[in-house]
Amino acid sequence: MAYKIEALPSSFADLGEGPHWDAATQSLYYVDLTCGKLLRYDYNIKRVFKTKIMGEDFASFVIPIEGKENEFAVGCGRRVVIVTWDGVAESCNVTGSLFEVQTNDDKFKDNRFNDAKCDPQGRLFAGTMRHGGDEFQYRWGELYKYENGKVTLVKSDVGISNGLAWDEKTKKFYYIDTTDYEVKAYEYSFENGTAKNPKIVFDLRTLDPKGKLLPDGMTIDTDGNIYVATFNGYTIYKVNPTTGEILLEIKFPCKQITSAVFGGPNLDILYVTTSSRFGEPDPAGNTYQVTGLGAQGFPSTSMKI
Asked: What φ, ψ does residue 105 adopt, rounded to 5°?
């Protein structure tokens, strides 16, 4: 398959993460996680805008809030806050707070939110991880659901809570804990937002028994195939989750591939974030667009509060 990879202009992030395509503004939103910054790629003018959230060290994800222009749910440390940004200004502010987690035990003080997405009904699923230290030893992360003002614990005993995707056709929820080296599929009720009966559908240890190939973010296309980003792997794997078959390996010029989302006017451009951490050389940290895949994704869902 003749796909084409191009870096978006001036799209660098130290740790690019959490890409979200906003159809209303034809914009790709994502974060520079460890710098407390939000970024917006404007598809129509082919330009990236960046803003610093004043007073915040982290910005783990950015998701537009339904019905609220210029308001976003953002993960800052163990809090999910509301940030107001016009998409252009070089600084922005926290203007509200939605909830905070893991406040009951001092061992969680260094935890932070990591990846998050909304299911097709607008429920927020957001997970935590230990920041610094050995995330593979201290499985102190958890996955939460936020719906109608209520926070529910979905899963504990998590190392690095990461990729999420849903398939309404097969009634599946896909989830990655990076420290498990695998993608799990859950039976999912779209009516009440509950997941059960996890099953491994893609095990990266079969490709790399030494455990250096780490699954990170994830998205899904309208045919039900999942796209798994690999930190340290230079690759996004397109996988049939029913059979476990790798359908395509999308190769990049940098190794720390963090996440992906479909966007563009026809939802057929795969936008991919990367990281330049730990001294990775250029072009690490750029955000890329992949065209010519012959696939389409689902619209990203804004958060209902």
From this structure: -145, 130
